[in-house]
Amino acid sequence: MAASGRLDGLRIALFSGNYNYVRDGANQALNRLVGYLLRQGAQVRVYSPKVETPAFEPTGTLIGIPALAVPGRGEYRVPIALSPRVRRDLAAFDPHVVHVSSPDVAAHRVVTWARRRRLPVLASVHTRFETYFRYYNMAWLEPVIEAMLRRFYRRCDALVAPSESMAQVLREQRMNYDIGIWSRGVDREIFTPERRSLEWRRSLGLADDDVVIGIFSRLVMEKGLDVFSDAIDELKSKGAKFRVLVIGEGPAREWLETRLPDAVFAGFLSGADLGKGVASMDVLFFPSVTETFGNVTLEAMACGLPVVASAATGSQSLVDDHVSGRLITPGAVHQFAEALRAYVENPDLRAQHGAAGERRAQEFSWDRINQAVADTYVRLVRQKRTRR
């Protein structure tokens, strides 16, 4: 392994529950990481479920692993085993370090495989799995899932979390004692205020002087869509004049269309089109509590939007309350509505807080962020060799 940030000769086995078959912020971050590692001279082999028509082409070499569709959410796959074929491939690759990015069955198996060979294991935490059950009337399962996660993460040598607020949650949950930060970056060529387009807004029936409250996300209930729609209803009842713009697709789209019949649904957008859509909003409203970082929040800030978000992991590390947006108690519909009304009725406040958010977004460079993960790999490998 070379110095000065180079990783020549380092072999990394990365296990993911979703590397490229459904597009989301976590797997796009993993693909960016692999691209960076390859440019630095490392060898990377990715193990993840495959589908016939993935959302995008994978970065690097992708090896399919056995998986089953998630009941009720068939677009997702759960890795269920390390097959003999995968074990042979893994042994032939002979990694120096194993990186697991989801606490599934295959990840448990590969952690055992690595520990038997005295290889270091790094786990990256991308979502708060234990909170998902709140949205499916199974909140009683949360402590059980948390205990299962603790068992998994304590078998790893170190964790990396996307934000300091999420790292603190993991410390409080006693998940591990070696927890670092693998933040997220933002593509400033795509997400910038310059992409704002009144012509694009007009094509959707949005007037130039409409104040547009937007959300862009995969449309699933765990993103807080119930809180989003309730707060919008309360804001309407106060007589505020605004429009709602929804960007994204997902199984909850029909529910949200029924719930907010006056909203404009732009569907799935990516790349420059997504940047244009986000920059053409006036306020981002994102009440999710399941985020560990909040790519959506950072991308909106880079476009110069004030953000109204839940005071939860992820957003707390990005939004400065009353400076670049508002952080509201999760689920507090009335407070969300009041925060939104202030932005709808005060264009100077929108501009001031949006500009502050854009300045904050300038601090997030992908290469610097991904080098922190590379440095962790190197540290863990050296520590393991020293112990031997």
UniProtKB/TrEMBL annotation:
Stored Pfam families: Glyco_transf_4, Glycos_transf_1
InterPro entries: Glyco_trans_1, Glyco_trans_4-like_N, Glycosyltransferase_grp1
Alphabetically ordered keywords of this record: Glycosyltransferase, Transferase
Enzyme superclass (EC): transferase
UniProt cross-references to SUPFAM superfamilies, sorted A to Z: UDP-Glycosyltransferase/glycogen phosphorylase (SSF53756)
Transmembrane segments: none
Annotated EC: 2.4.-.-
Molecular functions (GO terms): glycosyltransferase activity
Boundaries of every Glycosyltransferase subfamily 4-like N-terminal domain copy: 24-189
Record has Translocase as a keyword: no
Domain Glycosyl transferase family: 199-359
PANTHER family: SULFOQUINOVOSYL TRANSFERASE SQD2
Name of the protein in its database record: Glycosyltransferase family 4 protein
